[in-house]
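In response to a reviewer's request, we include the raw inputs and outputs for one of the modeled complexes. The two entities were modeled together in a single run.
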Amino acid sequence: MSKHLVTLNVNGEDHVLYVDSNERLIDTLRHRIGLRSVKEGCGTGDCGSCTVLLDGRPVLSCLILTVQARDRRITTLEGLGKGDELHPLQEAFIEDHAVQCGYCTPAMILTAKALLDRNPEPSEEEIKEALGGVLCRCTGYYSIIRAVRSAVKKMHGVRRMENER
Amino acid sequence: MLYFDIHVPESLDDALKVLEEGGGEVVPIAGGTGLIPRLYLRRTRPRLLVDISGFKDMRYVKRDGGYIRIGALTTISDLLESDVIGGPLEAFVHMGKMFGSWQIRNVATVGGNVATSSLIEDLVPVLEVLGARVKLIGRRGERVVAMEKLYDKDKRATSIRPGEMISEVFFEEKKREYWTAFDKMGRRSYLVMALVNVAIMLDMDPKSRHVYDVKVATNAIGGSTPGRARRSESELRGRRLNDGNVDRFLRAFEDELSPRDDFRASAEYRRSIAKVMAKRLLEYCERRISEGGK
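The model returned the following structure tokens for the whole complex.
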């Protein structure tokens, strides 16, 4: 099996790696770069747990070969906060108890971030639609949607304050 | 452990050369959302994949000399975000919103969906009612195949030859008032495999209600159901859209389907929901045309 030299920009940092032809992005991120927020659920594209952002768009890292992600920008949950400072979505998920077992949480937060980057004030319907590809088997959907809504409020509050200055 | 190599081509020529030399053992990979699960399940065992996902020139939706052209590497999200796909081409919007999940739509490509032929592709009936054609490229040149000639009878195989790949899907833009619509029925409303897909194109005079053209296509129904329901279409084409003719159309449609029975749904269920879906889609297209597309 041939090896390939690829460069991945993960959470703002370039990683240069030799990867096998059949290596999946999820395995590169988890086992080689050590980003354990990327979860494998089904491994066949049904559950959404392995969601990462590829050039800002949510994608399933279990269905992407690492070779195909060469030279792209990848964001995982680890890339969201700044040091000890959490992203408003992370804060909201804590405050609204939107985490039960936590397995789907990284995927939920990343997908919600991609949504808010495109649509800063989504309706409840739009939130549900966007998060539809990530399954929560604790079925904690109400608090997850509530957390996304309170993150929207937090982020708008910040934006308004900045505008008033 | 899966054993295959992947080749990252330097150019399109290089990709076509490797495809040609490998015969059927080499397949192109674009988004991979269809191919990779099939590799895991050992349903397909290519020796080599050619990664065509880097060819940005094959990712476009454009109007060009009376045609709408969609590059093979256009993703489903690209379709939904395109200015070209709107108005009477609303079937693409209906389809796109029901296609997989956002994660899948960001990666899955038009060429990949058309080439996969596993009977359940959501995009295929939409392209069929638009009379789309598929441009295939290979080292020996290019050829154009109509959508309906692309698949064998049970939609399990395509007429794409080893060494060829899809470069574009295109269709003529209609000049008269028309509308398209699509609906999908699955066991839930999101991220689901279709039990029945129906797409309709209605080209009708809004005043006289004369039907210049109508096309209806289904997918996922299985059995020996054809893609296009041509006999049913002929019940409406060239006639007036009134209750009697619509009724004849729907009865013919029901007859023309021969759905499969399987663990997902019974043949009778598939047949009866397909009829309801076709009725609603036809009414929807009629309404949009009568309202002048508003």
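As requested, we also summarize the result in words. The first strand of chain A starts at residue 3 and ends at 10. The two ends of chain A are 59 Å apart (CA to CA).
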